[in-house]
């Protein structure tokens, strides 16, 4: 009797499992068309970072001066900002992005150069908004440095 039970269990394990398990579908990435989006530009004293998103804020492409190979003080130059815009424009071509709302944050020297670079790379700029955070006397400032 035990041999019959073992044969039945062995027959159950030999059954093909492909019919029981559902096959997961893979979704292709980067194929959706986004004609209108947002450009988020962060210019600090040390770097320039640009992200292109759709209207809901999902990132389509991003680039920074550091990722392009600029090092040290050259990352915050206007030339580096134009190169970052050129790189991110190449990455987002497959989404056919044409119109952007620009949000600029920071006080770096690449602010105007990056906006100019967006318009030179074929984007239509609909609006420009400065979102630099400004303190309204919140936390106490650190003590001044004595040299």
List the helices and strands and how they pair.
Blueprint: H1 2-14, E1 36-43, E2 48-53, E3 59-64, H2 78-91, E4 99-106, H3 111-120, E5 124-130
Parallel strand pairs: 1-4, 4-5
Antiparallel strand pairs: 1-2, 2-3
Describe this structure in words.
It contains three helices and five strands, in the order αβββαβαβ. With 147 residues, the chain is α/β, with parallel strands linked by helices. Helix content is 25%, strand content 24%.
Identify low-pLDDT runs: none
CATH superfamily of the domain at 36-130: Ribosomal protein S11/S14
Name the helix and strand elements from N-terminus to C-terminus, one letter apiece.
Answer: HEEEHEHE
If you consult CATH, what is the topology of the domain at 36-130?
Nucleotidyltransferase, domain 5
Mean pLDDT: 86
* Terminal CA distance: 93 Å
Q: Provide the helix percentage.
A: 25-40%
Alpha-carbon Rg, integer: 26 Å
Summarize the main sheet. 5 strands, mixed
Please, how many helices? 3
Strand order of the largest sheet: 3-2-1-4-5
- Given helix and strand content, the structural type is alpha/beta
Overall body shape: extended
CATH architecture type of the domain at 36-130: 2-Layer Sandwich
Name the CATH class of the domain at 36-130.
Alpha Beta
